[in-house]
Structures are given as C-alpha cells and as structure tokens.
TrEMBL record:
General function of this protein: Guanine nucleotide-binding proteins (G proteins) are involved as a modulator or transducer in various transmembrane signaling systems. The beta and gamma chains are required for the GTPase activity, for replacement of GDP by GTP, and for G protein-effector interaction.
All copies of domain G protein gamma, residue ranges: 3-68
Protein name in the entry: Guanine nucleotide-binding protein subunit gamma
PROSITE patterns linked to this entry: G_PROTEIN_GAMMA
Native source species: Triplophysa tibetana
Record keywords, A-Z: Cell membrane, Lipoprotein, Membrane, Methylation, Prenylation, Transducer
GO biological processes: G protein-coupled receptor signaling pathway
Topology term for the membrane: Lipid-anchor
Entries under Gene3D superfamilies matching the protein: Transducin (heterotrimeric G protein), gamma chain
InterPro entries: G-protein_gamma, G-protein_gamma-like_dom, GGL_sf
Length: 68
C-alpha cells in the first residue's frame, strides 16, 4: 500500500512540475520596466501621492453641530 501512495504522490509532483514548467516567464528587467511604467501612468490617480479632496475624505474631522 505504501508503494501505491508513493507512486501517486510522485505522479502529482510530476504533474505540478509540468504545470509550472508550462507557465510563460518574463524577465525581471522587463517586469520592473512594466511596473515602473504602470506606476508613472497612474500616479495622478494615487491618493497617497496627490491626496484626497477635502469633501470626499472619509477620515476628516467631523464638523461640530450647534443646536439652536
């Protein structure tokens, strides 16, 4: 029974390795260039870089309310 489970385990491993080998690879330099280009293109939309408009900031201090 142990040899059957061992063979089964090895088959799963081989299938996983075949799957990983078929994945298309990209050079790190190309991936870094693509990431840099994406960041530069979307910098104007990044709230951490440009900030939030005062009216749409959910974390702003609440206004005080005076009851008449």
């Amino acid at each position: 029974m142990t040899s059957n489970s061992n063979v089964s385990s090895m088959r799963r491993t081989v299938e996983q390795l075949r799957l990983e080998a078929s994945v298309e690879r990209v050079k790190v330099s190309q991936a870094a260039a693509d990431l840099q280009q994406y960041c530069l293109q979307n910098a104007s939309k990044d709230a951490l870089l440009v900030g939030l408009p005062a009216g749409s900031n959910p974390f702003r201090e609440p206004r005080s309310c005076a009851v008449l």
